[in-house]
């Protein structure tokens, strides 16, 4: 780890340890606010929201490796604020070379003043990019877009949606304000304590809302997807590591049959297996981030591999964490089940495990 | 020779006529072993009027006198028709236990009220410090004339907030080895000194409670079995808890649900998710596991019917049944993908009529996935079941 990375990690660990304890996080998750503006502002002041952007956008020019460092800490503390959704995912699209967007939007995103989120997933479908029902057509003074989007992460706090739709048979990306005429936003809470929204739209938008189409839209989307996958994988890595740490602590303290649970060899082996699997994930996520930052040819294949491995491991590790705790882990007031719920939500965010697996096979066989 | 086809038809016709749309809705929206409380009780009263509230009970106590195959058919048809579940603590657990260990007075006073649903019982076994190691329990009952004075606490007491009665394991002798100093005690839950704290579960709902006892006076006549003989009474109850359930019926229902979900989701190329070879293979493999479980349950049923005792095989079935059921929860999660994310508890209330952000086919998926993690914890953890197999079958 270089000096800059160490500083980033130190500041993240310090801030989250001091301000992001589980009980205040739980109160926030149960409130009607969805996220803390205080935290969001603090994230902006510490530069976290400007991290992955180039200096031309007022950013710090960090790569995916640094994003992953921060995401992992967010995973450990179950952070509710939408850094991944807005900064990493929407930010990746808005700053992709060739994507047409007013610079004021990038300023608002980088400063954290406005929140942006991808609205791609549609009801009753997987997130397959070729399987969109939402469609756009040219009309007199702009474009008419019709369709439905569902389960948009951070949707309840989003100011601008990046909406995917088919335009003349091609993928197109639109930037749509939450209060656009003809757009209905249904906001709700999610099982992992965050927010989401469903969108129903039949709206006329100016030409300027079309950010990209065709090959450009597709490559902006795929680049965004790689970054989303690695951000989510790093967060899941943090969550499962915290789940293991919590389990180890608990089994040391919990006495049954006259001795601590941690002294039973059968349980020691299970915790050892959790550690082994987490370390394998850590290796893959790290390698994929470095490959992506270096622009290596195998970056996407590594990214997909990380997605598949992390998704199954996070599921298994957090399930084991609950099982090794027993009843206490099935309660809302105990932290370990919340790691389980968070990694479950991350499984299908932007890209499902199965889509990653199929794309991995495609890439492997094409090589 | 019973005509099972005719019996199945009779059950089906009864269910068709008696299950109101509201009750079916409650059954459909069930996300744990318990359905909506009021719906469960309403259904129990309907079954009681027909004489079918306790399928496993002998006729002398108000059971229908069915053989093991009829009971299986009844359970299966109820599940298929989306009947709400019947609360197990009275009918499945305490009733059979009193038939075996209760005094005449207990049998005549308590058993009919279990059957009618006039009394709702909850189970006070686990304590904060006594889970897998149940025998280490510390709630005490000290003899004081014709009363016991009870102090301590019980946890994971399902539905205590809806119950008017509780059966508990209490310590009546501290000076012997743990198992030898335990007694089985019945109490009214509104006795002075009893307080109930609801516990919010990981799915945001309240099903479990912690119950506190402070100088609670319980008549000595509420003892079941002999003083200090509660452990053997309790062990037989755990066998009822483990053996009285046919996992195959639930799992077949889950399988049908996953298939339906996977047909409703369009995957790559717009084709149903069920045609996705990755997903389809996983589902087929789980189905094969379910077939192995079904044949094992049939073997056990055969041994019961022949007057045998499956013994520790019920531990095998509990371990496999709960873990396989969890595997189907995961397949459901995989099938519906992102539709698991909305947290919309209103939609799980059978009386709710309104818009929900979750499609019908995914309403219960995440809550079921979360709640069913406890299936390998309650009623003896997956680890305890393996201890029993190691000890009783492998003689280790």
Automatic annotation (TrEMBL), chain A:
SUPFAM superfamilies annotated for this entry? Acyl-CoA dehydrogenase C-terminal domain-like (SSF47203), Acyl-CoA dehydrogenase NM domain-like (SSF56645)
Its keywords, alphabetically, are: FAD, Flavoprotein, Oxidoreductase
Q: Quick check: keyword Cytoplasm in the entry?
A: no
Per UniProt, residues of the Acyl-CoA dehydrogenase/oxidase N-terminal domain are: 2-96
Keyword Nuclease in the entry? The reply is: no
The record's annotation in Pfam families points to: Acyl-CoA_dh_1, Acyl-CoA_dh_M, Acyl-CoA_dh_N
Q: Which GO terms describe its molecular function?
A: acyl-CoA dehydrogenase activity; flavin adenine dinucleotide binding
Cofactors that this protein relies on:
FAD
The Acyl-CoA oxidase/dehydrogenase middle domain extends over 118-201
Q: Which CDD domains match?
A: ACAD
**Domain (Acyl-CoA dehydrogenase/oxidase C-terminal): residue spans on this chain:** 231-347
| Protein's name according to its UniProt entry | Acyl-CoA dehydrogenase
**Organism (species):** Luminiphilus syltensis NOR5-1B
Automatic annotation (TrEMBL), chain B:
Gene3D superfamilies per record: Acyl-CoA dehydrogenase/oxidase, N-terminal domain, Butyryl-CoA Dehydrogenase, subunit A, domain 2, Butyryl-CoA Dehydrogenase, subunit A, domain 3
Which cofactors, if any, are listed as required? FAD
Instruction: Please provide one cellular component term from the Gene Ontology annotations of this protein.
Output: plasma membrane
Please indicate if the UniProt record lists Mitochondrion as a keyword: no
Ranges for domain Acyl-CoA dehydrogenase/oxidase C-terminal come to 228-394
Phosphoprotein found in the keyword field: no
To which protein family does this belong? Belongs to the acyl-CoA dehydrogenase family.
For the Acyl-CoA oxidase/dehydrogenase middle domain, which residue ranges apply? 122-216
| UniProt-listed InterPro entries | Acyl-CoA_Oxase/DH_mid-dom (IPR006091), Acyl-CoA_Oxase/DH_mid-dom_sf (IPR046373), AcylCo_DH-like_C (IPR036250), AcylCo_DH/oxidase_C (IPR009075), AcylCoA_DH/ox_N (IPR013786), AcylCoA_DH/ox_N_sf (IPR037069), AcylCoA_DH/oxidase_NM_dom_sf (IPR009100), Mycobact_Acyl-CoA_DH (IPR052161)
Specify the Acyl-CoA dehydrogenase/oxidase N-terminal domain's residue ranges: 5-118
A GO molecular function assigned to this protein is: flavin adenine dinucleotide binding
Q: Which UniProt keywords apply?
A: FAD, Flavoprotein, Oxidoreductase
Recorded protein name is Acyl-CoA dehydrogenase domain protein
Classification via Pfam families = Acyl-CoA_dh_1 (PF00441), Acyl-CoA_dh_M (PF02770), Acyl-CoA_dh_N (PF02771)
């Amino acid at each position: 780890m270089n000096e800059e990375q160490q500083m980033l990690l130190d500041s993240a660990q310090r801030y989250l340890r001091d301000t992001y304890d589980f009980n205040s996080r739980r109160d926030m998750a149960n409130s009607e606010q969805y996220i803390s503006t205080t935290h969001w502002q603090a994230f902006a002041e510490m530069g976290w929201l400007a991290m992955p952007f180039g200096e031309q956008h007022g950013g710090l020019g960090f790569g995916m490796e640094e994003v992953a460092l921060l995401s992992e800490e967010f995973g450990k503390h179950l952070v509710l604020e939408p850094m991944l959704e807005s900064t990493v995912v929407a930010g990746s699209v808005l700053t992709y070379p060739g994507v047409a967007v007013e610079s004021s939007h990038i300023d608002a995103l980088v400063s954290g003043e406005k929140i942006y989120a991808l609205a791609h997933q549609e009801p009753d479908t997987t997130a397959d990019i070729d399987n969109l029902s939402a469609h756009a057509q040219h009309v007199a003074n702009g474009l008419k877009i019709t369709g439905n989007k569902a389960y948009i992460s951070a949707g309840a706090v989003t100011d601008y949606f990046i909406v995917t739709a088919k335009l003349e048979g091609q993928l197109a990306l639109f930037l749509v304000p939450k209060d656009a005429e003809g757009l209905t936003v249904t906001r709700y809470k999610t099982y992992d304590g965050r927010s989401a929204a469903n969108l129903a739209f039949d709206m006329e938008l100016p030409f300027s809302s079309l950010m990209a189409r065709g090959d450009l839209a597709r490559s902006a989307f795929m680049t965004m997807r790689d970054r989303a996958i690695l951000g989510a994988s790093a967060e899941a890595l943090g969550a499962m590591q915290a789940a293991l740490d919590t389990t180890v602590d608990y089994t040391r303290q919990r006495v049954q049959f006259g001795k601590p649970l941690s002294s039973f060899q059968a349980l020691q082996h299970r915790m050892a297996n959790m550690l082994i699997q987490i370390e394998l994930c850590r290796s893959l996520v790290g390698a994929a981030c470095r490959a992506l930052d270096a622009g290596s040819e195998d970056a996407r294949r590594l990214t997909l591999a990380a997605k598949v491995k992390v998704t199954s491991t996070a599921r298994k590790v957090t399930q084991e964490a609950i099982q090794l705790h027993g009843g206490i882990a099935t309660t809302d007031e105990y932290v370990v089940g919340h790691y389980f719920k968070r990694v479950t939500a991350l499984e299908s965010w932007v890209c499902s495990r199965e889509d990653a697996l199929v794309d991995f096979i495609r890439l492997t066989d094409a090589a | 020779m019973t005509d099972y086809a005719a019996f199945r038809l009779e059950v089906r016709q009864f269910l068709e006529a008696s299950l109101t749309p509201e009750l079916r809705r409650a059954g459909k929206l069930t996300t744990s072993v318990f359905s909506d409380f009021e719906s469960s009780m309403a259904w129990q009263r309907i079954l009681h009027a027909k004489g079918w509230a306790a399928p496993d009970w002998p006729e002398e106590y108000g059971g229908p006198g069915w053989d093991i195959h009829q009971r299986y058919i009844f359970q299966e048809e109820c599940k298929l028709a989306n009947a709400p579940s019947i609360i197990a603590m009275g009918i499945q657990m305490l009733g059979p236990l009193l038939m075996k260990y209760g005094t005449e007075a207990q049998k005549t006073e308590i058993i009919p009220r279990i059957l009618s649903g006039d009394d709702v019982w909850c189970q006070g076994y686990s304590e904060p410090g006594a889970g897998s190691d149940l025998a280490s329990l510390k709630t005490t009952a000290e003899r004081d004339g014709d009363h016991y004075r009870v102090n301590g606490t019980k946890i994971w007491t399902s539905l205590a907030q809806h119950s008017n009665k509780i059966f508990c394991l209490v310590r009546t002798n501290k000076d012997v080895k743990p198992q030898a100093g335990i007694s089985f005690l019945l109490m009214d839950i509104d006795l002075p000194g009893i307080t109930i704290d609801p516990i919010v579960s990981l799915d945001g709902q309240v099903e479990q409670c912690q119950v506190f006892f402070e100088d609670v006076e319980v008549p000595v006549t509420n003892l079941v079995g002999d003083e200090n003989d509660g452990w053997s009474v309790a062990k037989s109850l755990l066998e009822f808890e483990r053996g009285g359930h046919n996992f195959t019926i639930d799992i077949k229902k889950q399988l049908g649900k996953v298939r339906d979900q996977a047909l409703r989701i369009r995957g790559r190329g717009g084709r149903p998710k069920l045609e996705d070879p990755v997903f389809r293979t996983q589902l087929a493999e789980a189905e094969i596991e379910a077939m192995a479980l079904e044949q094992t349950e049939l073997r056990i049923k055969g041994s019961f019917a022949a007057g045998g005792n499956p013994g520790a095989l019920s531990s095998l079935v509990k371990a496999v049944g709960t873990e396989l059921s969890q595997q189907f929860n995961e397949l459901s999660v995989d099938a519906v993908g992102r539709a698991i994310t909305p947290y919309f508890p209103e939609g799980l209330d059978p009386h709710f009529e309104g818009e929900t952000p979750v499609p019908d086919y995914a309403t219960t998926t995440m809550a079921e996935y979360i709640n069913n993690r406890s299936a390998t914890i309650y009623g003896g953890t997956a680890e305890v079941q393996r201890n029993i197999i190691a000890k009783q079958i492998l003689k280790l």
